[in-house]
Specification:
Blueprint (H helix, E strand, L loop, with lengths): L13 H9 L9 E3 L4 H4 L2 E5 L6 H14 L5 E6 L7 H15 L9 H14 L3 E6 L4 H11 L5 E7 L9 E3 L1
Parallel strand pairs: 2-5, 3-4, 4-5
Antiparallel strand pairs: 1-6
């Protein structure tokens, strides 16, 4: 759901792809992990940050598709957080509503927080998957997703951002 267009000429990022797969950092890919003792949580959230135009979105798009192809993930959902046409929280809300409808969840019955929870629980029930939050500039916009996600064992999260300073104290750089 929502993955960006694929560019066939994606080359030269093998090291960054390997770093993502191993949950380790490099010069252009910095990984953050949740400070949790549960082994799954330690490896389930990554952040990739760097200046605009270096290819963060394409790197994560390629990585996500590669992991789907390899069977590591059964599903992937991509939320574009950084679109300037709307307030960021409204943009996320509209994507959650759209996904809820596609999943057969009655959106009229629930407020956005409960709807978000139902969407994540439904996705979690599909098996191992990844939720990509692209171009995040404010942790508060995704805070509810991250808090709910931490209760669900089958959801990995990858966050892209131009800014490394927007992250919650829940994260540490490795």
């Amino acid at each position: 759901f929502g993955l960006p267009q694929v560019f066939n000429d994606f080359i030269g990022r093998e090291k960054e792809l390997a770093d993502l797969e191993k949950n380790s950092g490099s010069v252009q890919v910095v990984t953050h992990q949740l400070k949790k003792t549960d082994k799954h949580d330690l490896h389930s959230t990554q952040q990739v940050h760097g200046t605009g135009g270096i290819g963060k979105t394409q790197l994560i798009n390629h990585f996500t598709r590669l992991m789907l192809f390899r069977g590591f993930y059964k599903w992937a959902v991509w939320f574009r957080v950084g679109d300037g046409s709307e307030k960021r929280s409204e943009l996320i809300d509209s994507q959650i509503i759209d996904l809820a409808q596609r999943l057969g969840i009655s959106v009229e019955k629930y407020k956005i927080q409960k709807l978000t929870e139902l969407v994540l629980v439904t996705l979690n029930n599909f098996g191992k998957g990844v939720l990509v939050l692209d171009d995040v500039s404010d942790y508060n916009v995704i805070k509810i997703i991250m808090q709910l996600k931490n209760k669900l064992q089958n959801i990995d999260v990858i966050i892209t951002s131009r800014n490394s300073d927007v992250w919650s104290p829940e994260f540490k750089q490795i």
